[in-house]
């Protein structure tokens, strides 16, 4: 089928969507109608998760319009083109292959004689071998002692995703006896970031992973020098303490400075790289390769659902289209991500990059300005913490903020406490349930200060437990959601030209090649 | 002077402000005009900081209109009324006295025969005495060994502010030999939060601070039980390991369960409590009472500037009014807080509560709906990390997001590294300078995908170093900004009725007294 890339405002189904009658959420979520919606508006996700959208401002009419929109914008076909190896990243003229790090969704994709699925699998295998040797004490420090700590040096996609995944699984791994090494992360060019991490670890027993696709990221190379100084000061040979994750063409690829090098390539964007060697090295060392493999399986499970042509059986596509409806028809500008799981404390920060860097664009795939809004602002903190922080504005503020909840029936560790006849986990779950209904239905009060208008939409992703497989599915869900939204908005979700200007100007500041405001600010900051 | 509380849309000066000519930021920030603005549009803050608003969309005409707005909305008089002890929190009919935790700005305020300034000072003195005894080993565990770790148990304002302040000063204290005890924080009702913290510490050498004003916060009492179980399992007497920070009327106040109790009261809102005993106990134990005293001095220094009637010499009021102009006239809905300091990693999360819980309101002080937007969404992460994450949307997204940068000339620790002729700290500063100019001025490119429109406003707070005094000033600046904005919007910034409905519904869920959607969701989560 011929694929057409058209702006959203030229799509017939979008015009129809704009004319659907708005759903009065407080009304439809009340009483038995609400109970019916909770049972009806749910779709299975990968690894046993479920996406429940009962508290979104949709009904069968809106959903029918979204189905037409999915069809007319050829979302399934565009995803097919992507995983079959077409050049979807039009800005940088690249393939987009992160799905292949966890599965083979369609045709084999061969680039320069290399089957990419085999290439990514081969890297995972090599990482697994290294991790096993480190865990068994076959690779040690110069004194023959086991490494106890792994430190990832990277920024952006080399930091946020892997860090969020590590924190998500740290306690699970401890409870399930798969915890191998503690992981730390150095990202910021702020010298105090590296110094604090280095002060908090035993460098003699630490293995550092330098992660930079290009091998030229300023922050990462600077922090590498920082770490090498620390190793040298401790009388250690840095090359016995460092591995690299990079592209085969990078200066880091064949350097004697590293114990080993593992590869990704230009077809894996940084923000989509948690399932590649970028996440693979640190997570395999921290938790063992088997845990990383389960994580990949969960993601692959979710990817398969994203192929479903039926919108109501495709959770990522459904989530994406409801988001477009909220953003472009209902006019909501921000989305809050609210996981009721302390282990997901940095998951919203990862989604912030994933979503805002992918879809924070003003031009379409052909470089022409679009006449409609694109990616929203994403922010969030775990519940119940957020309830005691910014939920006031979510409930009673002057703007409506769509909410993405995440909740699990069981916690990760085996300790809990019963207070007032319920466990903490039950309290946690009761709170997320209560919030969904409070936001949707509100509550009238004669004291307007205590009045809740309701009508504030949310969806919830529900699982039995946060574990490697469900985490993989959760991650892939949002990656695929962001991809589908980019297709609908007709933008290129896979480049990030917006980060370039700052880099250029920072170099000029450091070279003192400035005038005007740039020079004046430089003086204020003593540069 | 008679104080009038009027809605913003009835204010004459607001109508005039709405008619001012919009400033073309890309134009005025170019060339020498830009350099002039950087030098001209700056105002000293407390503790040697400076607030520079050159890259905001203001000029002398807009500033003149803001001056009229400040006058007509009687901001100085309202602040005076607040610190002189009038009932400013109309929702809960309470005084608002957090400024008194760090200074005496006006009249003595006596409640029930107690001078409140004396009361807060007395609590600080008692905390200092306890902290000194703990540090000297005069108060120890049952085995006569020194406590090494302090763990704060609290949520919302009892967690976010103190945690952000601790992280902001941890490395500074280590570099300046005032680091006394490591601090940890337990907040979430998620049982894995407490379990993970407890697994990571040596409970026998840990002192726990239970923080709850009412003594009834569900999360906090639940986590207290969690901690008591852990102490008991370790064969320890919990009452020798716990202190309380609460109000004098709370059930925790005179309990034998605690080594000591320190008091705050109903006139200190949780989100404004970092300078009270809520922040004082943990920070004094972690860094010593002298450090906490410097932090208070910095805040007091900033508070004094907030009294200035001249808008251009009142940084908090100026920041507040520029924010109102951006929110209500220019229509920007979100503000990003971007500190170029890893130590301020959780400062944006604290501001999120401070701002969104205070000003996320839809009714005025008299409970009448307002016809204009109020508090914005606040989010942020430290630079340069954010540059590699969500800055793409900030530069090239379809919505304009005002930015609040923070930068320091010097880092906190004494380690740095020179790469490509500059230190990491210089790179950090060069990046924030570059970003301000990139956002304001943009850069034309024939390739529209690489085009930057500019016109994206920011301000920057600049200091020599992040230390206790500058941190105090920084904190007080935002507290006062939020207060002034609440005055302009004619809302009550000091209550939080929006958090109540969720609490009520969560109790019903736990009691299984549900029907409709609440029951259906409860079943999905196995409650």
How does this structure look, described?
Two copies of one chain form a homodimer. Among the domains of chain A are: 196 residues, Rossmann fold, CATH 3.40.50; 30 residues, no CATH class. Chain A has a six-stranded mixed beta sheet with strand order 1-2-15-12-10-11, with helices on both faces. Chain A is built from 18 helices and 15 strands. The first copy, chain A, has 527 residues and is an alpha/beta fold. At the A-B interface, helix 3, helix 7, helix 8, helix 9 and helix 13 of A face helix 3, helix 7, helix 8, helix 9 and helix 13 of B.
In short:
The structure is a homodimer of 527-residue chains. Chain A has 18 helices and 15 strands.
Q: What proportion of the residues of chain A is helical, as a percent range? A: 40-55%
Strand content of chain A: 5-15%
Count every beta strand of chain A, where a strand is a DSSP E run of 2 or more residues: 15
Strand sequence of the main sheet of chain A, in spatial order?
1-2-15-12-10-11
CATH topology of the domain at 100-295 in chain A: the name is: Rossmann fold
Low-confidence stretches of chain A: none
CATH architecture of the domain at 100-295 in chain A: 3-Layer(aba) Sandwich
What is the subunit organization of this protein? homodimer
Biggest sheet of chain A: strands, sense, closure? 6 strands, mixed
**Overall average pLDDT of chain A:** 97
The global form of chain A is: globular
Structural class of chain A: alpha/beta
CATH class of the domain at 100-295 in chain A: Alpha Beta
Number of contiguous helices of chain A: 18
The CATH superfamily of the domain at 100-295 in chain A is known as Glucose-6-phosphate isomerase like protein, domain 1
Q: Using a beta-carbon cutoff below 8 angstroms, give the protein chain pair with the largest interface and the number of residues from each chain.
A: A-B, 160 and 160 residues
Radius of gyration of chain A: 24 Å
């Amino acid at each position: 089928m011929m694929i057409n890339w058209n702006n959203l405002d030229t799509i017939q189904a979008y015009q129809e969507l704009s004319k659907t009658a708005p759903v009065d959420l407080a009304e439809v979520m009340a009483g038995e109608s609400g109970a019916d919606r909770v049972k009806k508006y749910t779709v299975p996700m990968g690894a046993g998760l479920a996406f429940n959208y009962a508290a979104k401002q949709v009904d069968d009419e809106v959903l029918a319009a979204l189905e037409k929109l999915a069809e007319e914008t050829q979302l399934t076909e565009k995803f097919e083109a992507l995983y079959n190896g077409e050049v979807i990243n039009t800005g940088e003229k690249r393939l987009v292959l992160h799905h292949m790090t966890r599965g083979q969704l369609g045709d084999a994709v061969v680039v320069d004689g290399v089957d990419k699925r085999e290439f990514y699998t081969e890297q995972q295998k090599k990482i697994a071998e290294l991790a096993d040797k480190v865990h068994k004490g076959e690779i040690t420090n110069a004194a023959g002692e086991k490494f106890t700590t792994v430190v990832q040096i990277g920024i952006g996609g080399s930091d946020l995703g892997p860090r969020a995944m590590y924190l998500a699984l740290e306690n699970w791994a401890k409870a399930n006896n798969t915890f191998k090494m503690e992981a730390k992360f150095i990202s910021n060019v702020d010298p105090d970031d590296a110094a604090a991490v280095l002060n908090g670890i035993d460098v003699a027993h630490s293995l550092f992973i330098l992660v930079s696709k290009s091998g030229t990221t300023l922050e990462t190379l600077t922090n590498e020098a920082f770490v090498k100084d620390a190793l040298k000061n401790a009388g250690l040979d840095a090359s016995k303490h460092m591995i690299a994750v990079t592209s085969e063409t990078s200066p880091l690829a064949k350097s004697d400075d590293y114990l080993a090098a593992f590869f990704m390539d230009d077809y894996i964007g940084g923000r989509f790289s948690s399932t590649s060697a970028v996440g693979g090295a640190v997570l395999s060392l921290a938790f063992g390769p088997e845990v990383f493999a389960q994580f990949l399986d969960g993601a692959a499970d979710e990817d398969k659902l994203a192929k479903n042509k039926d919108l109501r059986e495709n959770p990522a596509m459904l989530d994406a289209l409801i988001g477009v409806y909220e953003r472009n028809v209902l006019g909501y500008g921000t989305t809050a991500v609210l996981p009721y799981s302390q282990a997901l404390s940095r998951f919203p920060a990862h989604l912030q990059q994933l979503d805002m860097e992918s879809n924070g664009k003003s031009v379409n795939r052909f470089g022409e300005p679009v006449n409609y809004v694109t990616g929203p602002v994403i922010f969030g903190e775990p519940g119940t913490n957020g309830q005691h922080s910014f939920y006031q504005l979510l409930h009673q503020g002057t703007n409506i903020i769509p909410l993405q909840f995440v909740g699990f029936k069981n916690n990760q560790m085996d300790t809990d406490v019963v207070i007032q006849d319920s466990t903490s986990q039950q309290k946690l779950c009761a709170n997320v349930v209560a919030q969904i209904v409070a936001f949707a239905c509100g509550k009238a009060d004669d004291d307007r200060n205590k009045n809740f208008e309701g009508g504030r939409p949310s969806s919830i992703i529900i699982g039995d437990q946060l574990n490697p497989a469900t985490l993989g599915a959760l991650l892939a869900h949002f990656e695929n959601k962001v991809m589908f939204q980019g297709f609908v908005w007709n933008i290129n979700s896979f480049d990030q030209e917006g980060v370039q200007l700052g880099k250029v100007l920072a170099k000029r500041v450091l070279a003192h090649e400035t005038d005007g405001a740039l020079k004046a600010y430089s003086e204020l900051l003593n540069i």
